[in-house]
Amino acid sequence: MRPPAPISENWTRMAHRIVILGGGTGGTLTANRLQREYGSGAEIVVVDRDDRHVYQPALVFVPFGMADPARIVRSRSGQLRDGIEFRTGVVDQVDVERSVVHLADGAELSYDVLVIATGAELLPGETEGMSGPGWGERVFTFYSLEGASALHRALRTFDSGRLVVNFIDVPIKCPVAPLEFCFLADWYLRRRGVRHRVDLRFVTPLDGAFTRPAASAHLAGLMERKGIGIETEFATGEIDGRGGRLVSWDEREVEFDLLATVPLHGGAAFAGRSPGLCDDLGFVPTDPHTLQSRAAENVFVIGDATDIATSKAGSVAHFEGETLVANVRRFLAGEPLQATFDGHANCFIETGFHKALLIDFNYDYDPVPGRYPWPHAGPLPLLKESRLNHMGKLMFQPIYWHMLLPGREIPGIAAAMRPPAQPAETNDRKGAPA
Amino acid sequence: MSTVTLAGSTVEVDAEGFLHDPAQWNREIGREIAAQNGIAELTDRHWQVVDFMRKAYLENGTAPSIRTLAKASGVPIKELYQLFPKGPAKLAAKIGGVPKPRGCI
Description:
The complex is a heterodimer.
Chain A: E1 16-21, H1 25-38, E2 42-48, E3 52-54, E4 73-75, E5 84-88, E6 91-95, E7 100-103, E8 108-110, E9 113-116, E10 121-123, E11 139-140, H2 145-156, E12 161-167, H3 177-191, E13 198-203, H4 213-225, E14 229-231, E15 236-240, E16 245-248, E17 253-255, E18 258-262, E19 264-266, H5 269-273, E20 299-301, H6 314-332, E21 345-352, E22 355-361, E23 370-374, E24 378-382, H7 387-404
Parallel strand pairs in A: 1-2, 1-9, 2-5, 9-20, 11-18, 12-13, 12-18, 13-14
Antiparallel strand pairs in A: 3-4, 6-7, 7-8, 10-19, 15-16, 16-17, 21-22, 23-24
Helix pairs in contact in A: 1-6
Chain B: E1 2-6, E2 9-13, H1 27-36, H2 44-60, H3 66-73, H4 77-83, H5 88-95
Antiparallel strand pairs in B: 1-2
């Protein structure tokens, strides 16, 4: 195992030097947990290109006027504990052989441990026509604060025609968000009394409403009851914003008057410039249970930046935090790592009318009905619409800023998934390497 | 899981017709699966994709998604859809005798 501190550099230095790339959900909670763990025993530096931390779970509310854009942004540095250095800068590349991060301004940061928490980027330029004519007029994405705000302005005056909701391909952040958008749009248009004049349609490259079978069937039923059309296995190759058409690779077409789309996602650009670090989509190959990167043993990865087969979602980064911090500590102490992360994800799915669904799953278990967080006692019902779940989603914002980002445990919410009370079909991904 | 006979060999397939064990596969089986899915003849271009899919699965334990397939196999997405209508990654995996690509979630 590599010695924790390069002695040649500064033999008197006792503190571990930990560099964290990314000051979003995963990077912030990791930095805070590590700082609590080590105190002055570690120098922790967080690097991000800006100091704006957007509360992403609220982006889907912005187009419907349910969240004020100004109130879902805070400073990144303000979420970090005293003693953590925050540095604004663009990462040029990482040299994993020499354990050095190169910033675009020429600065170099050497590290004993590197944590990559740079999330996923939106890549509208990868789809022909997406950011061409019509972008910002009838083609929008709600996956950025600017896009969600612009879509809000367009929706306010939209009172007839076809509204299409689509995503180009997996992986995307929060894979249920396009469905939430459909449910909320249905509710919003009904409230405005124009729903009967709008054809609302969901266009997906998948063969069903969602990736996991039980949830997919349930969500498809819900869409049908709400009168939302669905077009499956539609792999969008081109967006014709001027003509109002989605064109698939196999030359099918769906027309729209207003399009809410989700661009392709990729890893952070520096990963692609760093030899041997990422896969061809820019995500960092990572051990699915220890969260150590495949590229180097002193590099760990959290959140959307990994290539592991679970959702790209804040809940996942939160659940990963415990394993990641324990393994950084073990690595620095020269101990073997623990393979404790189980792929746990949970998501609230807003369904409109002040209700929401909740789903809970991991690498081995598909989302199933039941109660959360305790199998029989609840209080939150799984895979079922309820007002309590909606309240849960709304209450989550203060929990996010005050418990999740500081890296505290949330009472009753365990990092490892509790197996469902009723025997569920474990999904066929079990045992498959990610 | 059920047992079927393909090109004279007895193999196990899942509910959607994907081979359970990639080791039971041979090119004749690949041709027959292709025919059952509307591809009467597998050209060299088809094989380029199928072989890539199979190799990627055997090396990495997971079948590549369509984006990876297009970037790494040297066959552009548009052509992949012409070769394997509807779902190129899925169909190429099926013909190549490897499990269905998971996609990410």
